[in-house]
Amino acid sequence: MSKNRIVVIKIGTKVITSSDKSxxxxxxxxxxxxxxxxxxKGLKVIVVTxxxxxxxxxxxxxxxxxxKTEELQAAASIGQSRLMHLYSDYFKERGYLTGxxxxxxxxxxxxxxxxxxxxxIETLLSHKAVPVxxxxxxxxxxxxxxxxxxxxxxxxxxxxxxxMLMLLTDVDGLLDEKYSVINLVDxxxxxxxxxxxxxxxxxxxxxxASKLESIGKATASGIExxxxxxxxxxxxxDIIDGxxxxxxxxxxxxxxLAKKRWIAFSSKPRxxxxxxxxxxEALSNKNRSLLASGIVxxxxxxxxxxxxxxxxxxxxxxxxxLTNYSSSELSKIKGLKTADIRNVLGRKAPDEVIHKDxxxxx
Length: 362
Ligand code: GLU
Prior knowledge:
Radius of gyration: 22 Å
Shape: elongated
Strand content: 15-25%
Largest sheet: 8 strands, mixed
Structural class: alpha/beta
Bound molecules: glutamic acid
């Protein structure tokens, strides 16, 4: 990998937790030494780390993962500062500063916040500091689930247009039907998805399926991804050197515009618009905008500027876009010809419900 490339390295809880559930400091230190080696060579690295809840549980002397959300959040709050302290100390030993960033899905939904995160990360990288990112577990209830940092790491990878996403976990990669590691995946297929689902049963963690979903989004944004065992010696350097370790997922090479990538992958849709078959055809195959006349129904509450799903009449999502109308306006004008919209709403309004420049076919 050439210089000036940016790599996101996601470190899973199981990688940095010992069998007694405490933080494996030696392992974390070893990983940070490996990351520092590649930083020394001129590569830029963004770390997405899990382990706050695990670290907090260890410090609180909890033997079992709590069930109550507030207990998980308290553990994350205690563990996150401990975790960050270690990252900061170990990177400092190698001459690198760290910058903590805690994010939730809400930060990705709002385009201004989204662009601010990007600027902050770019500025940290320009100072040769290492952004260390985790979910903001103490405020984000639905996010405290195994696998969420896989998604977070792919959102960050896409946001920063990185060259590679490394998901470090405690398995050697995606296993085939005979339990051997698949070294290269060139495009997602039903076989690959099935293998990931089966490994879900085997490990009982939900890990591989959520990884595959995140990798699907990242590779579709042109980012190469690797799943590998973070406990294996020298793993980061081996991946960077292109050695056959872990499972490598080729990027699809598709280059969507930044705004379209945000619409398609990063923001969370606020509702759905159901369209007829004519509109589906015009959107999917003729590069047209969505007009009110093709809309047969809608679901959810949204305002102008929100991202919405576009589905066919059988509720199959095939596109996403930024709506020019709120859900209450749309319920009044759905099915109408453009010329009649003004009479109903009593004001001049855009011709398109979703302009083709703000529309992504999935
Ligand atoms: N944010 C959680 C933690 O740091 C982990 C979430 C995950 O691993 O997906 O403990």
